[in-house]
């Protein structure tokens, strides 16, 4: 994900995550901009209060997202659209799970770590298909969570928004479809329709040279039979 894509993604991310909340059905507890109290404490290296969470700025939240989620899924090395799709999934469901969804879409081993094999497979796949597959499996996962009854409508709307914006990013970059496979180069045919190596490569000669040999042999036999008379 390039800087431009990251900057474009953040307003959408903040819009989905919302401001401060402390919903009793949310296992994350006190949260602001999607940053939980536990995440903020880990980032700052000390315990934090709900008041600290409430005072979290967008700038600090963006720094956390860049370091703990964006970098974790190597979004800067992913195609446009796929980068945003995986990044948002990482924020919502964790970097390791988002990486596995990417790997499943790219048809590689799902170890939760985006490495060279994953990146190579992603580059050879169409961004459009990757986005669709990731969003599909993400939505299926969310539907299986106990919180779906409470948060399901918002989650479904979020995945739909991500799917739509990610495809727009991919289309703008011209990388929606998979790169065309380069066909093997075949040798140019001989323009005259002839074997350039000459008649020696075509097996026994059955042309004019064979007829000349037979004529010479017939003349020799006639000479013997007639005693050399012409």
Automatic annotation (TrEMBL):
**Which segments show compositional bias classed as Low complexity?**
178-204
Provide the TtsA-like Glycoside hydrolase family domain boundaries: 12-94
Q: Which InterPro entries match?
A: Lysozyme-like_dom_sf (IPR023346), Peptidoglycan-bd_3 (IPR018537), TtsA-like_GH18_dom (IPR008565)
Q: Disordered: where is this region? A: 173-208
Q: Does the keyword Hydrolase apply?
A: yes
- A Pfam family (short name) is Glyco_hydro_108
What are the recorded GO MF terms, alphabetically? hydrolase activity
Q: Does the keyword Hydrolase apply?
A: yes
Where does the record place the Peptidoglycan binding domain? 98-155
Could you list this entry's UniProt keywords, alphabetically sorted: Hydrolase
Annotated protein name in UniProt = Glycoside hydrolase family 108 protein
- Name the species this protein comes from: Microbaculum marinum
């Amino acid at each position: 994900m390039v800087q431009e894509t990251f900057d474009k993604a953040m307003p959408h991310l903040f819009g989905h995550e919302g401001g401060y909340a402390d919903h009793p059905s949310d296992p994350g507890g006190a949260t602001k901009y999607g940053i939980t109290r536990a995440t903020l404490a880990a980032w700052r290296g000390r315990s934090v209060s709900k008041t600290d969470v409430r005072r979290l700025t967008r700038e600090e939240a963006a720094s956390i997202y860049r370091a703990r989620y964006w970098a974790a899924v190597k979004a800067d090395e992913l195609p446009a659209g796929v980068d945003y799709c995986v990044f948002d999934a990482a924020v919502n469901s964790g970097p390791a799970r988002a990486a596995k969804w990417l790997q499943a879409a790219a048809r590689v081993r799902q170890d939760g770590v985006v490495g060279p094999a994953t990146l190579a497979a992603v580059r050879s796949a169409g961004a459009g298909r990757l986005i669709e597959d990731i969003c599909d499996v993400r939505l299926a996962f969310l539907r299986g969570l106990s919180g779906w009854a409470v948060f399901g409508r918002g989650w479904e709307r979020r995945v739909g928004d991500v799917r739509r914006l990610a495809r727009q990013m991919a289309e703008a970059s011209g990388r929606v479809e998979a790169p065309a496979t380069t066909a093997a180069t075949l040798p140019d045919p001989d323009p005259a329709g002839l074997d350039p190596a000459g008649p020696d490569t075509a097996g026994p000669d059955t042309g004019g040279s064979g007829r000349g040999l037979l004529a010479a042999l017939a003349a020799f036999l006639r000479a013997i039979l007639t005693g050399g008379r012409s």
